[in-house]
Write a structure and sequence with these properties.
Structural class: alpha/beta
CATH architecture of the largest domain: 4-Layer Sandwich
Helix content: 25-40%
Distance between the termini: 11 Å
CATH class of the largest domain: Alpha Beta
Number of strands: 26
Number of helices: 18
Number of domains: 3
Largest sheet: 8 strands, antiparallel
Bound molecules: fructose -6-phosphate
Low-confidence stretches: none
CATH superfamily of the largest domain: Aminohydrolase, N-terminal nucleophile (Ntn) domain
CATH topology of the largest domain: Glutamine Phosphoribosylpyrophosphate, subunit 1, domain 1
Length: 610
């Protein structure tokens, strides 16, 4: 989603703001802007386009300001254009704001302000909020009071920072539903929508909670609710360093993150997988251990790639723990009037921990009395804070918009959870040990696939100009087929569909001809023979088959146009290996097509609006 940066301290603000915006670019954006105090007023520069284009506009200016705000926008209200870019100002142009989220009652507020004679210069809801704050400031003569009064009347979501030419010694930040993190330096504060913009300046941070605001000056910080009740900030140490948010020699973040997976797999297991004992330790679930022991049903929810991880989790938990599992899109769950009771356990899966639909599902499930757990990457994020308990996946910052390493780390935690729940029930230590020991071998097996990525590159180049792709898989690899198709469409813009292989003859087979590449996941497991039959059906219709198969499979080459070999593992664990070639296939196809892999069109890293 959009990116926010704010600074107050002793350094020149402009370079820091531009650097912060560059760090936030991965979240997806179409325009950018900054505002700093200058002379007796504000200097504002904003435009549609890239942060580099904005930097070229302002780089040569000698702006001595030591505070300011900046924004990268991903259009929701109004097309991407110079006038719709943030910061937006009030009527006097002395108050500027940057805002993430949506002001739902902007139309009513705007009509009221227009009746009072105010005019507007953009199509955005943010300008309405800026003008509203300015109107209240005229009335009260007190900036903090004006911000609080405006925010109490606003419906919707916001993460915002306010700057005023009349008060060049204070920044005001506030949040409802859209993250704001504040870094504490020596006599300085950095405000951002995401810790990646802060980590090179300080590791000491706190997150605002909903309806909380911070008043930041060079000498200190005060936090309170929007209703003026003092609060106390909970300080956190950021666990990642600058290296994790830089490309480290790879041409794209996505490729770097694909290659990090043997390590992030291990990071998600560390201290949790007690292979020798055949046991699992999940400290984050200790407080709900008894509830988990009694659990009669689990509901897993999430969006996009996280929803695919949930589908794999369903197979694993049902198989190893014999607990019925339902998987539901968070966006459907929240509006469906779900039947839930205090015996139910809802598990929200989210890389960012900020996805609006998943957060709303968490709140809905809590309201109905369920125990709600989180499987989250971003420490301190909204879902991590609002769930009763949970497990972090520890994948480190994921910058590429298309999720890769977070997916495999979500899978690790879901497998650990399945083993943990299984061990509470009938799963023997010997059975758990067999899986745990094989999990320890997986990072090396993942590495061996990545080392052979050259052959995947050449297959991707051969099919990069296809119009459509079909992905088929069975059992635990059916969700991997969905994930492979999602990766392909989101970064290469090739239309791709994922199906359970046996469903092909119920419709999609009509699409197959010599122009249709079909990716089939065919590890040697109990459904292998059936998948071979599907391959024959495709060959008979001259479809081009790219098979993901075991490297010791002597037969597969006879059935497929191309074979991407993967090492053998336990059938249940194959998703950790089968997904890697699919990520690489999508990556190389997108690069071949000249697509912007790390920032695909229309997509944002974290979807904090509905
Ligand atoms: C796809 C992708 C998205 C996210 C989805 C949920 O590559 O990244 O489909 O998985 O937007 O995001 P999180 O996991 O942050 O809740």
């Amino acid at each position: 989603m959009c990116g926010i940066i704010g600074y107050i301290g002793h350094r020149r603000a402009l370079p820091l703001l531009l650097n912060g915006l560059k760090r936030l670019e991965y979240r997806g954006y179409d325009s950018a802007g900054i505002a700093v105090p200058h002379g007796h007023g504000l200097y504002i520069a904003k435009r549609a386009g890239t942060v580099a284009q904005l930097a070229a506009m302002v780089d040569s200016l000698d702006l001595p300001a030591t505070m300011g705000i900046g924004h990268t926008r991903w259009a929701t209200h109004g097309e991407p254009s110079d006038r719709n870019a943030h910061p937006h100002t009030d009527a006097s142009r002395r108050i500027a704001i940057v805002h993430n989220g949506i002001i739902e009652n902007y139309a009513t507020l705007k009509a009221k302000l227009q009746q009072d004679g105010y005019t507007f210069h953009s199509d955005t809801d943010t300008e309405v909020l800026a003008v509203f704050i300015g109107a209240l400031y005229e009335q009260y003569g007190d900036l903090e009071l004006a911000v609080r009064a405006a925010l109490s009347e606003v419906r919707g979501t916001f993460g915002l920072v306010v700057l005023s030419a009349d008060h060049p010694d204070i920044l005001i930040a506030a949040r409802r539903g859209s993250p704001i993190v504040i870094g504490i330096g020596d006599g300085e504060y950095i405000v951002a929508s995401d810790a990646t913009a802060i980590v090179e300046y300080t590791r000491s941070v706190f997150y605002l909670t909903d309806d909380e605001m911070a008043l930041l000056t060079r000498s200190g910080c005060q936090t309170k609710t929007i209703d003026d009740i003092p609060t106390s900030a909970q300080l956190l140490e950021l666990e990642f360093d600058l290296e994790r948010i830089e490309k480290g020699g790879f041409p794209h973040f996505m490729l770097k993150e694909i290659h990090e997976q043997p390590q992030t797999f291990w990071d998600a297991c560390r201290g949790r997988l007690l292979a020798l004992e055949g046991n699992i330790k999940l400290g984050g679930l200790r407080s709900v251990e008894d509830t988990l022991r009694r659990a009669r049903r689990l509901i897993l929810t999430g969006c996009g790639t996280s929803w695919h991880a949930a589908l794999v989790g369903e197979y694993w938990i049902e198989e190893l723990a014999r607990i019925p599992v339902e998987v539901e899109y968070a966006s459907e769950f929240r509006y469906r009037n779900p039947v839930l009771s205090s015996d139910d356990i809802v598990i929200a899966i989210s890389q960012s921990g900020e996805t609006a639909d998943t957060l709303a599902a968490v709140r809905e499930a809590k309201l109905r009395g369920a125990t709600v757990l989180g499987i989250v990457n971003v420490v301190g994020s909204s879902i991590a804070r609002e769930t009763h308990a949970g497990v972090y996946i520890h994948a480190g910052p994921e910058i590429g918009v298309a999720s890769t390493k977070a997916f495999t780390s979500q899978l690790v935690v879901l497998m650990l959870l399945a083993l943990y729940l299984g061990r509470m029930r009938h799963l023997s230590a010997t059975q758990a040990r067999e899986i745990a020991e094989e999990m320890l071998r997986l990072p090396d097996k993942m590495r061996s696939i990545l080392e052979r990525s050259q052959s995947i590159h050449s297959i991707a180049c051969q099919y990069a100009h296809a119009q459509h792709f079909l992905y088929l898989g069975r059992g635990v690899n059916f969700p991997i087929a969905l994930e492979g198709a999602l990766k392909m469409k989101e970064i290469s813009y090739i239309h791709a569909e994922g199906y359970p292989a046996a469903e092909m003859k119920h419709g999609p087979i009509a699409l197959i001809d010599e122009n249709m590449p079909v990716v089939i996941i065919a590890p040697r497991d109990e459904l292998y023979e059936k998948v071979l039959s599907n391959m024959e059906e495709i060959r008979a219709r001259r479809g081009q088959i790219i098979a993901i198969a075991n490297d010791n499979d002597p037969d597969i080459a006879r059935h497929a146009t191309h074979v991407i070999p993967i090492p053998e593992t336990l059938p249940l664990l194959t998703p950790f290996l089968t997904v890697l070639p699919l990520q690489l296939l999508a990556y190389y196809a997108a690069v071949e097509r000249g697509c912007n892999v790390d920032m695909p069109r229309h997509l944002a890293k974290s979807v904090t609006v509905e």
